[in-house]
Request: fold
Amino acid sequence: MKIRFFSTLSVLFSLVFIYHPQKAFSNTVGVANQNLVVNANQDELISVHSSRTIKPRAFTFGFILDYNINALPFFETTAELEQRNLKTLDPSTKGIKNMLLDGILLGGYGISKKVDISLFFPFVLFQKIKYKEYFHGEYTEKGFLGVGIQPKINFYQGTNLGFSTVLTGLIPFTSGDFHEGKNSYSISLELILSYLVNKLELSANAGFKYKNSKRVHASDDPDIAPLSSQVLMGAGLGYKVDNIKTTFSLEYFGSYPVEKKLNSSDKDLFINEVILGGRTHHVVDYTYGVGTRINEGVGSPIFRVFAGVGYTFKPKATKKVKRIKPKPEPIPEPTPVPEIEDNFEYKEDNTPSEVIQLKNINFAINSDQLIGDINDSNIKMLVSSLEQGFKQLIIEGHTCNLGRPEYNQNLSQRRAETIKNILVKQYNIPAQKIQAIGYGMTKPIASNDTEEGRIQNRRVEFKIFK
Reply:
């Protein structure tokens, strides 16, 4: 079951509106930030996008909750605090200054192998402010705050390398906040590069967020202005543990405004955060983790813990397309002990007159059925040599070390006999002069420690005795 979640706080802070008891002092709350990003596809990392898309015609549905501490800002300059006989609230003050519980409801759909689309609804459930006598930022509304849409296109997905792009549009349900601006919306475009090697995955994201907003009133305080567009960035490292069906990851994400604005809050206008978490796949999929900030940026908590669940509805097999596997032509039973002309007796230490090796014969996985033809230049060279006369042809089947030894030996024997039967039927080579032998993984010609070596070891060899 595959499901993924995305954009919780990054969406949430971009859509909400902040209430200030007397006067707004900053432009750093309620703006569109690229904070925590939780992807809808469970095949991806947690917050950093991977290049893969949701499976075609699969629908994902889920939610995630995020509890964070000290994410909301406080305002006022030292002079303004002195006028109200209040001590300066040091941004580095230890302890809890505010608490917030928010989340996101989302769904996603795989349109094709290369395209998917997601719809999400951020919400706020709970907030608590400790120092209410100070000017501070808080949400004016609870419940759903807005809607976002996020299509992704995969341009290339190989065995190891993948490249995609994702477009995100955010629209709030209401408008008029000093910091979001009037009729606010944002559109971001990110490039995604992913690399997989064995059980490790490396992903990097980079993009740009365009933010459209205007001042709410002509008489707005000059210190209040919506945040400008932003440069987005992220990087993640994931490790898959197969026996517990879990991928653990360490990830970084952040953003930087392209235009600096006046800022009288205790928050920086740029953010840098890290998270550590996991994604576990069972009947229901689970996403969970913890995080903290590198600097005290907009919407960045000193500590966060998040968790969510989801489910994927997989498509049923269509009845319109019926695949019929063609019946293979009957293949003559191989002769267990072939009759050898001219009293020829084969021994492994005999030196053949000629050896021809084939590496491009493709069989179906775990099968002795050929995929495609073997009518290549090597086969033609083999047949041409046999037509000049020979006493005996030995066909040897070899495998790499993946799988059990006894299974590989049996598979290599059956594949060698398949090649023998093709030579007999298609090229009229006398069956009594051909012997098929499967050696499995016992005779490697290269190291099985690398994929390149294993490819060399998966081969068919022809030994011709004249």
Q: What stands out?
A: The chain is about 10% helix and 40% strand. Helices lie at 9-15, 78-83, 377-386, 405-427, 451-457. Residues 10 and 167 are 14 Å apart (CA to CA).
